């Protein structure tokens, strides 16, 4: 495989082109199969659905042909040049385009987990801010126990038939634990977990 880091131009190998084309065909076939089986389509009765399936199949074939005949990549901007040079480095170190997909997928999942944790933390801070606002304005601290929000969704808490001792412990803990703290701690843990699993370099 010949690459030119100075010009930020990359020659795409036949193996990579075939893999990408096959991936496009398989993805289009999977979408067609999902549409077909979930709608129980019939080519004789539903022409609109048949048109949609044909469009997906043609799109997949077009993307496959594009990948198959695209023999090189070139950069037209500074951002594209940086991405292209990273791919050139991957080629030199024997990393395939699939490893780039895995790497970016892991980064996306880790970022999603961090975002989820941050939203949970923000929800806890929002509850706390409402309590502070109510106290400063009305001079009364409104306490929101976790039990008030959890009990309606857990029948065992409302009407236990077994594990009565455990029920008393859980009721006491949930009655003492404020909602803000119950959101802040798990949110921080979730965000920390997402940050910990975020990959820092491709392998």
Q: How is this structure best described in words?
A:
Strands 1-2-3 form a 3-stranded antiparallel β-sheet, with helices on one face. Helix 1 packs antiparallel against helix 2 and helix 4 runs antiparallel to helix 8. Mean pLDDT is about 85; it is low at about 1-5. The protein has helices at about 15-40, 45-70, 80-90, 95-140, 145-150, 155-160, 165-175, 180-195, and strands at about 5, 10, 70-75. The chain has 8 helices and 3 strands; from the N terminus they run E-E-H-H-E-H-H-H-H-H-H. The protein is mostly helical. A hairpin with a 4-residue loop joins strand 1 and strand 2 (about 10). It has 2 domains: about 5-95, no CATH class; about 110-195, no CATH class.
Summarize the helices and strands and which ones pair or pack.
Layout: E1 3-4, E2 9-11, H1 14-39, H2 47-69, E3 72-74, H3 78-92, H4 97-138, H5 146-150, H6 155-158, H7 164-176, H8 179-197
Antiparallel strand pairs: 1-2, 2-3
Count of all domains? 2
Secondary structure tally: strands: 3
Oligomer: single chain
Uncertain segments of ≥5 residues (pLDDT<50)?
A: 1-6
Gyration radius from CA atoms, angstroms: 27 Å
Element order: H for helix, E for strand: EEHHEHHHHHH
Percentage beta strand:
under 5%
Q: Counting H and I runs of at least 4 residues, what is the number of helices?
A: 8
Helix amount, in percent? over 70%
Which strands sit side by side, in order, in the main sheet?
Answer: 1-2-3
Main beta-sheet annotation: 3 strands, antiparallel
